[in-house]
Records
---
Amino acid sequence: MVCSTRHDVRLLLADDDDGFRETVCEVLEPYFETIAVSSGEEAIEVVERHVVHVALFDMHMHAMNGVETVRIAKRIRAELPCILITSDVTEYLRQQARLARVFRVLSKPPAQRELLATIDAALRDSSTAVGGVRGQSTGGAGGTLSDDGAADTLGESDASDCVDPGDFFPHA
């Protein structure tokens, strides 16, 4: 399922929770072309067949977990920045993520601000970023993203009210 094609940055999201996956797509669609799949196996097929600039993987998916998915994706594209999302961050998981070269581990559900800032940082850090995104920022994630201080956990507020795309991508 492709959520949007408004930018030249393609993001892969793999999560077996339909509701969470749809919510994340709604948050990301103003900023990225997003390919959303429901398993690690499907995610690997996408990495093999398409250019992907950043990947978000749920830790607890059926058959293949997030760390296993990252390991295989990195064998295919070593430079692909991968972000792991999980509801149970442990020190053991952090160690496994470091060994698999995960860019960052986020607690599920991540705050919109944290999710978008992490994706921005992964793109800036990555040699695969496209179209002037790498190494450039118009203020990064440090700007004000929410005017009223409302909760910004996914599903609790509307992302279009919280994020200015200029905070993540330079203007042409």
---
Amino acid sequence: MADFSSIDQNRISDLTAWKICSWRGRKRWNAADVQDDRCIGLNSMDANLSIPHGVRTIDRAAFAGISGLKRVVLPETVECIEEMAFTGCADLESIVLPRRLKHIGMYAFARTGLRRIQIPSGVEELPQGVFESCKNLTEVVLHDHLHTIGESAFGRCFRLNRIELPCSVREIGKSAFAHCYALERMRLPGNLHEISGSCFYACQGLRQIEILPAPVEIGEFAFFGCSKLTAIDIPVTVRAIQKMAFAGCNALVHVKWRDQPITLGDYVFQDCTALLSFLPGAKLSAIGKGCFMGCRSLRRVRLPDNPVFSEIPAVSFWGCTNLKEFRMGPNVTKIAEDAFKYCPTHQGYSTPPGASHF
């Protein structure tokens, strides 16, 4: 392992391969300025790298794109790893983050070969893209002080299958777990304000999702293409489900609804080909166009009887070829002409006498 502790700072010949900072004062090593407790990078190295005690900051892009680096040991003095510090180190398999670490920058470990990572308790935020495209990453250990997981933080971590979100997490950014194909189960903590757009986009292995009562919105494409998800329980706190949130979940059979005011956006359940029924609570406010388009197993629909729900928009139930029972309240006054296109004509349909097509 390369070890800086044995290097004589006064002998430039010992530092031909290195560009690193001293931990005190200002020096010039290998034609590079180094100062103020900062590690600014290197030219070449062994497969194993040990950063010297006293270094507090790993500079921006300090080791970006270095090939052959497999293992990094950071001293307990490191408090900050800046953005892109190790990005693109495709051979990097192991790094132990020190307990005193407080800050990790954007894309700091993106596109590395890390297999497992444990985040110290002093880190409160995982920023945008911090572990994006770590295709060998299987396990992440988080601690109770973490409150934010940034946009695409674990996006395209294809093998990630072990991660538990602590109850302290309040925000999860867009696409945070998109394309995590091996992820099978997820429990979302009870402090989330929303489930962001594309959060679990194309998590093809996701079978079970538990959403504790807290979020008021499920963002667009949040669970798009989660093709093994079979059931979902919508918490009573949710007031809106945005465009295509569950589209393409073709194993989804059951959705459990509560009696809360809620609005469904456009194409929310499009091509959920296994979905059997839509039996929402009495306070459903609206459904968007194409909401159940292509749900060819859908058999029963009972829309609420309340003064707010008044319209069935375009292609809402287009292609629901097995629809047998359809009920709607007397307050529905507008039904799009193609709302039931390619649905069977059946006596089980109940349409209010005052409803008009548009």
---
Amino acid sequence: MLCSTCSQDLSESAFYKRSNRPRGFHSSCKDCITESGYAIKWRHENRDKVKTYNKRSYVSNPEPYRTASRKRSARIRKAEGTVTTSEWELVLDIYGHQCAYCGVNTDPLTMDHVIPIARGGTHTADNVVPACKGCNSSKKDRMPWEFGYPRTPYDRMDEMARQLHFRFDY
């Protein structure tokens, strides 16, 4: 199949399935969609649709969500370190109470692990950043550079590390 964005001839597995398309696949490959941030922008612009879809999906089949939640809780319990309330408040202050990825100033912000716990990251203040629910859900267990968002949490990580070490004396 030919990608409409990068013009490469790729296998069907390189494209997202779309039932409303003539061939049953999206016209751009997965890599091009990730690079453009189209899916993330669409989710931000259509939050009500996404919320309705997710709620309907959860109500019709809650067990996969519960299983995922249990697995995540177990990973966090096994991960090294902790994040205290005062450390989390400092991280929020450093990022100006904005999402580290898209810059949206929304409440509540969720705690995102820059290096995901699933990939060996720690549950410490120097590995967490504030993220809106949309970005945190979209990032999943990917690294920031794999996430495909133009803004990275590393923009303020040096400042955060300096203040954390200064204030909390690790």
---
Amino acid sequence: MYHLGLMYKKGKGQPGNKPNFKEAIKWYKKTLDAGYEPLFHQPYAGDKLTCDGMKGGVQSVCKKAITGDAEAMTEMGSMYWSGEDQPGSKPNYKKAMKWYKKAADAGDEDAKGKVVKIQKLIQ
């Protein structure tokens, strides 16, 4: 189930290879509900990012992200970037960049690339 969510997140097998975050979250939630917590790590000391106010699969991904899961951090960045972090949300580029930078610092190559692209756009 987790890998199916990952495929949706990365757009593999999707029309135009576009990510489908809503479907990814659905599969991540099913994975967590089944008791499989694949990539939990130690939390960052003093991390001020929280999952307050989030619901369902988004909250599950967020909880993984704040425990140090680099892929979940990247996913949180992507959800904030696209405005898919909660129903009715608008993009929040500042929060997206925060998550991308945390993911890049944790070694996620996809996030590193996104940080470089965004920095080039804002220069």
